[in-house]
Design goal:
- It comes from Candidatus Nomurabacteria bacterium CG22_combo_CG10-13_8_21_14_all_32_8.
- This is Septum formation initiator.
- Keywords: Coiled coil, Membrane, Transmembrane, Transmembrane helix.
- With 125 residues, this protein is mostly helical.
- The protein has a domain of 73 residues.
- 77% of the residues lie in helices and 0% in strands.
């Protein structure tokens, strides 16, 4: 009989309001930590995808650079590079250079400007 009464004290403690409130707080803390962990997992997954995309992009640029290096090892590749960078031509070839006129008339600059007063001014010209 005494064993049964001792079990009753433990049962009373476990069913007391204080213990149930304490247990509820512990459960809430665990639930909050689980949600934070899930959010961190999602963020880590997104970061992983971004890094994988960046790795693929870097591998493509590495392949492009390697092909450019191999191209520069040939005589034809060196010639193309010099032509592009410095604008040189072989003997006997002609080169055409297009030069923009930087001295635009003042009237054209005014026409390009926008606004109410330029619109009114254009009526009287």
């Amino acid at each position: 009989m005494r064993n049964f009464q001792k079990g009753g004290k433990l049962k009373q403690i476990m069913q007391s309001k204080f213990f149930l409130i304490f247990l509820g707080i512990i459960i809430l803390v665990f639930a909050f930590n689980i949600f934070n962990f899930i959010n961190k997992m999602v963020e880590t997954g997104k970061n992983k995808n971004l890094v994988e995309d960046k790795i693929i992009e870097l591998e493509k640029s590495k392949e492009e650079f390697n092909s450019e290096i191999n191209k520069l090892k040939t005589e034809k590749g060196i010639e193309e590079s010099l032509r592009e960078k410095f604008g040189v031509a072989k003997e006997g070839e002609n080169m055409i250079m297009v030069v923009e006129d930087k001295n635009l008339p003042v009237k054209e600059k005014e026409e390009n400007s926008s606004g109410f007063w330029s619109f009114i001014k254009s009526w009287f010209e």
